[in-house]
Design a protein that fits this description.
Distance between the termini: 67 Å
Number of helices: 16
Largest sheet: none
Helix content: over 70%
Structural class: mainly alpha
Number of strands: 0
Shape: globular
Order of helices and strands: HHHHHHHHHHHHHHHH
Radius of gyration: 25 Å
Strand content: under 5%
Length: 306
């Protein structure tokens, strides 16, 4: 006997035999698109990390000399930790540079090559498009940088181990001076605090990217520079320069308390969560950053392809 369900047309088949439609998830795929089209966001920090490890390996023969250079415990700790701090600094700097240029081209390039006409035909809102570009810098890049820096430091520590143990068993002192697990927590907090601190810069660069028809880098630099010069020659003050410089240099003293001149010596006990999240500079920067993003969304919706 023929099965009744088989004899029914497909449209009349029981609902339980139909597969549920898959969610589109436009924000997720917009984020994936940014990573597919902008591989320099993680390739550039990887190249810098590889160069750091290679240079550290070449100079490994001098490690025992540097560790023995000073018998003072605090000085020896600074000497031991300095290469790790330098590696972190260079990877973060190249990450910030690549991220800045990515933001300047994020909305400008899609208008220049008119690909925005295609993306606007997709079921992706302007809010989702702009938010995915901001999230790429504020959510995805910090994770990449954290993993790259941590792996780099572990490889450097392995080189230290391979050199110091045959030279006299000084690795225990180096591990005490540079505890990777504790510093991983410091690094994670540092990246999180920087991501929040740079919110107004991200919003500003995306706004300029959505507005400028040509040369977005110049349009991003010239207005602040003009404000600095007008204030300087009109009033003889430098408040705008100080404000911009502090935002670019990062709120390191806001995220950490009682930080000395050696950034390499920052430890987990100096993380200042309460001071950071109660700072007017942090919340004011977030408000300004959101306002800039709102303008970027409006510009993307209204600006014609250039």
């Amino acid at each position: 006997m023929t099965n009744l369900a088989d004899a029914l047309p497909e449209s009349a088949a029981p609902a339980r035999t139909r597969s549920a439609p898959t969610a589109v998830r436009p924000f997720y795929w917009s984020l994936r698109r940014e990573l597919w089209e902008n591989r320099s966001l993680y390739i550039a920090p990887l190249v810098v990390a590889a160069l750091v490890v290679f240079g550290f390996l070449v100079g490994a023969v001098r490690i025992p000399h540097h560790v023995k250079l000073d018998h003072n415990a605090s000085n020896q700790a600074a000497i031991s930790a300095a290469p790790y701090a330098a590696a972190t600094f260079f990877i973060l700097v190249i990450g910030a540079i690549v991220g800045g240029f990515y933001l300047l081209g994020a909305l400008h390039n899609e208008r220049r090559d008119r690909s925005i006409l295609f993306w606007k035909s997709m079921p992706v809102s302007d809010v989702t498009a702009v938010a995915s570009k901001a999230a790429t810098v504020h959510l995805v890049m910090p994770v990449f940088l954290f993993a790259i820096i941590l792996v780099t430091q572990v490889l450097m520590l392995a080189i230290d181990f391979a050199v110091l143990v045959p030279a006299g068993g000084q690795f225990a002192g180096l591990w005490a001076n540079w505890p990777v697990l504790r510093m991983a927590v410091v690094l994670a907090w540092g990246l999180l605090s920087l991501s929040i601190w740079f919110a107004p810069l991200t919003g500003y660069l995306l706004m300029v990217s959505a507005w400028a028809k040509r040369a977005p880098f110049l349009w991003a630099v010239l207005p602040p520079l003009g404000l600095i010069l007008v204030e300087l020659f009109s009033f003889g003050t430098g408040h705008v320069a100080h404000l911009i410089g502090r935002r670019i240099s990062g709120g390191f003293d806001t995220a950490f308390s009682n930080v000395g001149p050696h950034a390499s010596m920052v430890d987990i006990d100096k993380i200042d969560l309460a001071g950071f999240f109660s700072s007017f500079e942090v919340w004011g920067g977030l408000i300004v950053g959101v306002a800039f993003l709102a303008v970027a969304v409006w510009l993307r919706r209204t600006r014609d392809p250039s």
